[in-house]
Amino acid sequence: MKRAINIGLHLGLAFAIFGVVRWVSHYRYASNHHGGSEDYKEECQSEGCSGEEVSELYSSYQEECIGEGCSYEEVIELAGGSGSVNAMLNDFQSRGWQVQPCTFIPPQIPAGLNNAATGDNDFVGGWCSQPMVDTLWGDFHMSKENWDNGFGFEDACNVNLPLGRTFNSLALLRLFGTSMPAGSNDWLPWFYPFASNAIDELYGRCGNGQTSGVLATTFTGLQDNRTELYWGFFYGQDVPSRAGTIVHEARHADGGPDHNCSSCSAGSCDSNWGLFGSRTYEVLYVWWLRFAGGGSITSATSGLAQARANTVLATAFCRRPTRGEVWGSSVSNPSAFLSIP
Ligand SMILES: [Zn+2]
User: Fold this and answer.
1) C-alpha 125 to ligand 1 mean position (Å)
2) Which DSSP letter does residue 216 get?
3) 280 CA to centre of ligand 1 in angstroms
4) What spacing in Å lies between the alpha carbon of 246 and ligand 1's midpoint?
5) Is residue 28 part of a domain?
6) Does one domain contain both 186 and 78?
7) Which of 67, 99, 111, 266 is the most exposed place for a label (fewest CB within 10 A)?
């Protein structure tokens, strides 16, 4: 996750700066064109291009897409439009160059999905109706350009696709209500409104194109505020863990602390429980789901929530949380690591 500068400036000033940044970035693309860097459609499909020209396009693609992060807009721009993306990628592949399967249109989804094991088959029946799709879509300010080209906009209830898998996690978050009843000590209904209020917009993207690594990134400050969800979120996580990632990102979007240390195996590490950063929020949500989800979720979902809570506790804090840290020093066995039963 990245956070450039926290919003704290007069709104008018912020808009003025945003305008300049936009202008500069448009200018950059314009100058690239004048510098001779053309797109695949113009250069190869209409004129016929040399191997050297394709090679130049590939280096730009490689820069954008191989390794961490893949700018979807840049790939479309490089191709000269979404209609030329596949031709460009096929050309690269025919020359023996590596391409990301998720950058084809539609993206190539991983083979051998096990939607029963990830919980993806369980939830779709509860939200696959126009009113609920509209509700989830609207609450997280999703828009067509961030979910089309095969990400699921045209096929919202298909849980093999990124959008359907995202809806599964949002519907699980919403399953317990949209506000915490007065006087209640059950925090489970609190997480949906927290997440939908904090997250500015949800985007579907390739990311590194792998089912592990960075799952999502939240951008705040003087730029287009958004949470991007990546291949690892869609295809590397089960439904309750995905819902936990939404809560994690919501904490970033809400102005929570940045990840502040690096010695943990999961990456995106928080120093400790008491930081109350994204990792603490993530654990709290899946813990509540396990603890209070009761008869509303299957025992399989409850087990996935428990497993996720314990994985994050064991791998995502630089100082692994203890029972005493979470419950206070009077709890039994305060120095033992916290484990979710
Ligand atoms: Zn994070």
Assistant:
1) 30
2) E
3) 11
4) 10
5) no
6) no
7) 111
* Alpha carbon of 182 to ligand 1 centroid (Å): 31
Number of domains in the chain: 2
Helix axes 72-79, 51-65, angle to 10 degrees: 170
Q: What is the DSSP string of 114-144?
A: -TTTTTHHHHHHHH-SHHHHHHHHHHTT--G
Domain assignment of residue 133, given as a range: 120-327
The mean pLDDT of 102-106, rounded to a whole number, is: 94
Residues 182 and 133 in one domain: yes
Distance (Å) from CA 256 to ligand 1 centroid: 10
CA of 313 to the centre of ligand 1 (A): 14
Q: In this structure, how many other beta carbons lie within 10 angstroms of the beta carbon of residue 94? A: 9
C-alpha of residue 219 to centroid of ligand 1, in Å: 11
What type of residue sits at position 133?
A: V
Residues 92 and 126 in one domain: no
Q: Where are the beta strands (DSSP E) in 145-215?
A: 202-204
3-state SS, residue 184: coil
Exposed e or buried b for every residue in 15-32, given b needs 16+ CB within 10 A?
Answer: eeeeeeeeeeeeeeeeee
Per DSSP, 93 falls in state H
Quickly state the pLDDT bin for 24 (edges 50, 70, 90): very low
Residue 3 has pLDDT above 70, yes or no: no
| Biggest alpha carbon–alpha carbon distance for the chain | 76
Please check whether residues 81 and 172 belong to one and the same domain: no
- Per residue in 242-259, pLDDT (tens digit) is 999 999 999 999 999 999
Instruction: Put residue 42 in one of left, alpha, beta given phi > 0 → left and psi -120 to 50 → alpha.
Output: alpha
- 309 alpha carbon to ligand 1 midpoint, in Å? 15
158 and 292, same domain (yes or no): yes
Picking from 240, 258, 255, 246, the residue whose alpha carbon sits closest to that of residue 203 is 246
Domain presence at residue 17 = no
